[in-house]
Write a structure and sequence with these properties.
Length: 692
């Protein structure tokens, strides 16, 4: 009983020492024993010590009690501060050796790392910075704060978000450096990681390096038997398409079908993008891919229509006889009477014939064999031109609507196309697919509406003219599309290239009516139609009134038009204006001027007279002097940097780097000048020797 009471006193501290003294019913001997036992466990209170002491400070044992030693009576009195503690810890070796370290010298405080954030918090912060186009800050936050500062173990998503940001910015080496660091840490990449890596290969400035990295990564995934998702396959398709590797697109598409993935509109989007890279036969290949997409039961979307327009504008049709045999031959007859399948997902694998499509896309024309086969297939068909200016003038919209449409034939319907004839430009290729009106009708039949990109591509592809512009403006109003300055610049560029400067100026007036502000690109497009000196000078004056400074592209357009007409007075005026405004020439301008300064082959001014070459000698001398005065910058980035420096500090002209480059260009111009004079002297000497 007393033992349990003693342990109870030890647990509850000093406050339970009093009940022991209140046990008056017990005998004195019992109380003394309990007091002794309690004193061994619980130190007595100071009041108890003072009351129990005698006049000389000795403890009073009381009557009938035995004498207790002094060391036992004061046992535990020096450790009163430990009685109220609940837990005890051992001292660390650093604290035990602290007195020895104090004798040796001052102790440096040990740096402690406080982990206040998590890996997911850093993931969110990096994602936010990347959305704000602050990729370098996101990389510094990951490397400096997370890895070095808090020493956190990164997760897979930390690397994936950074690889995605590097891929969109085109930093191929940084993306794969993060990928290698990720593998060294033992983290397992996911589909999003591989998608970001393939996207980095596609967006790389060096297409060859991007293709090589994509092929290496693809081989690595095949060795490790890593299953890929549809999104990752589409990223790989995009890489092959942008790097002009269309055969790799078909290899990836075949692998997709073998692994059971569904072919969608986005899949054919990247196939059309691959056709766009072939400038010679891309239009014919795009029509073949379009036919296969319709055959698969997939309805094209707005992106597919825009890509078809881009191939119409930028790519040729290739060999006419081969295109006639492929697009209008027996292969297209299988499409007739075939309706669109609603369940394209379940049957797309059985419908798509990859081998046949690949053979037809990469077939090469043979002038001795294939052309005869193509003509023999069309025995009853005569070559009828698809578009003639007499029958389909660009100014009559009613005639444009009657143009034949190859898209009707590709869908399995009837078309007015009998055979293909010479296709000269983008307007001719657009007429093959129904013209602007027929193309828009096809989009409307599929439940699609044209967007700003569609109308801009049509303005840059269709035949220039005020009537065409009015039709596009009407379509934009019907579908509530807000037109921007890029749309009007495309219309101005088409009219100026066709030599219709008045039509281009009419587009500018429409811009002012619609309160669309002009920019430098607007005047650059107008400069393509300024074939006379007064038009070019008026253009520069209009730019000055608006408050715009002409750049090197504007002067390049003016020089190109003047050199085309061999108007050397016009060229000298433009070069003097460039010198006065401080606009440095680029490589394109130097090539244009070098071409204009050359004599025609087999030309002798002493035997015949050419009115266009009367002032060529004066221009050649002025051009050589102009080269000595003007540094010929070959890089547009260096030119833009120089323009910024001049605008910031117009009086500082003694930059060391600028002077060195100017001197090098002047010396190069002098070498060209002396070499030409030497050739001229040698030719004169040889002529004199022959006469003698």
């Amino acid at each position: 009983m007393f033992t349990s009471l003693a342990f109870s006193c030890l647990r509850h501290g000093k406050s339970l020492c009093v009940p022991v003294a209140r046990l008056s019913v017990l005998s004195p001997r019992t109380v003394n024993v309990s007091r002794v036992q309690a004193s061994r466990l619980v130190p007595p209170a100071p009041s108890q010590l003072s009351s129990s002491a005698g006049p000389h400070g000795d403890p009073d044992p009381g009557p009938g009690s035995s004498s207790i030693p002094e060391d036992r009576e004061n046992l535990g009195a020096l450790s009163t501060h430990l009685s109220s503690r609940r837990s005890f810890r051992k001292a660390s070796p650093d604290i035990q050796d602290l007195r020895h370290q104090e004798e040796e010298g001052p102790v440096k405080p040990r740096k402690t790392f406080r982990r206040t954030n998590t890996a997911y918090w850093y993931f969110l912060q990096c994602k936010k910075l990347i959305r704000e186009n602050k990729l370098q800050e996101a990389l510094d936050l990951f490397n400096t704060d997370m890895l070095e500062g808090e020493r956190l173990q990164p997760e897979e998503y930390n690397y994936t978000v950074l690889i995605g940001g590097c891929g969109r910015a085109g930093h191929l080496k940084k993306a794969f450096r993060l990928y290698n660091d990720m593998k060294k840490r033992g983290l397992v990449p996911v589909d999003a990681t591989y998608t970001a890596l393939f996207n980095a290969c596609a967006e790389s400035p060096s297409k060859e390096a991007g293709l090589q990295q994509a092929l290496k990564l693809e081989q690595e995934l095949q060795r490790n038997n890593c299953p890929l998702s549809t999104i990752t396959y589409h990223a790989l398709l995009k890489t092959h398409a942008i790097t002009n590797h269309l055969q790799g697109c078909f290899h990836t598409l075949r692998e997709m079908l073998q692994n059971g993935h569904v072919v969608t509109q986005e899949t054919f989007h990247y196939l059309l993008m691959g056709c766009l890279k072939d400038k010679k036969t891309g239009f014919r290949m795009a029509l073949q891919v379009w036919r296969q997409m319709l055959k698969s039961g997939i309805c094209p979307d707005a992106k597919n229509y825009n890509l078809l327009l881009r191939t119409t504008r930028d790519c040729g049709i290739g060999d006419i006889a081969l295109a006639t045999a492929i697009l209008l031959g027996p292969d297209c007859e299988t499409l007739k009477g075939r309706t669109h399948r609603s369940n394209a997902k379940s049957r797309s694998k059985d419908i798509i014939d990859i081998d046949l499509l690949e053979r037809q896309l990469f077939i090469q024309p043979d002038p001795h064999r294939d052309n005869e086969k193509c003509i023999s297939r069309q025995e009853s068909v005569h070559l009828v031109p698809v578009r003639q200016k007499e029958s389909y003038p660009a100014v009559e919209l009613a005639d444009i609507s009657t143009a034949p449409n190859l898209l009707d034939l590709l869908e399995g319907g009837k078309s007015a196309v009998v055979s293909l004839s010479t296709v000269n430009g983008p307007a001719d290729r657009l007429m093959l697919i129904g013209g602007a009106k027929g193309f828009l009708e096809k989009m409307e039949a599929n439940g699609l509406s044209p967007d700003l990109r569609t109308l801009t591509l049509l303005a840059d592809t269709m035949e220039p003219g005020y009537e065409s512009l009015q039709m596009l403006l009407k379509v934009a109003k019907q579908h509530q599309v807000k037109l921007d300055v890029a749309f009007f610049n495309s219309a101005i560029r088409r009219a100026a290239r066709a030599g219709d400067l008045d039509g281009a100026k009419a587009v500018v007036s429409v811009m002012r009516q619609r309160h669309v502000n002009v920019d430098v690109q607007t005047f650059g497009s107008l400069a393509l139609g300024c074939e006379r000196q007064k038009d070019g000078l008026q253009l520069l004056k209009d730019m000055e009134e608006v408050g715009l400074r002409p750049n090197v592209q504007v002067f390049s357009a003016l020089i190109g038009r003047a050199a085309r007409r061999l108007d050397y007075l016009y060229l000298k005026t433009i070069l003097k204006t460039m010198s006065d405004m401080g606009v440095w020439p680029n490589e394109v301008i130097i090539k244009q001027l070098e071409f204009a300064a050359q004599y025609p082959p087999n030309y002798n001014k002493y035997k015949s007279r050419n009115n266009y070459l009367i002032h060529i000698d004066g221009f050649r001398g002025y051009y050589q002097q102009w080269l000595r005065d003007m540094p010929a910058w070959s890089s547009e980035e260096e030119q833009a940097e120089l323009q910024r420096e001049m605008s910031a500090a117009p009086l500082t002209t003694d930059a060391e780097d600028g002077l060195m480059k100017a001197q090098r260009n002047q010396r190069a111009a002098a070498r060209r000048y002396h070499s030409r004079n030497k050739d001229k002297t040698d030719s004169t000497l040889s002529a004199l020797l022959k006469q003698s």
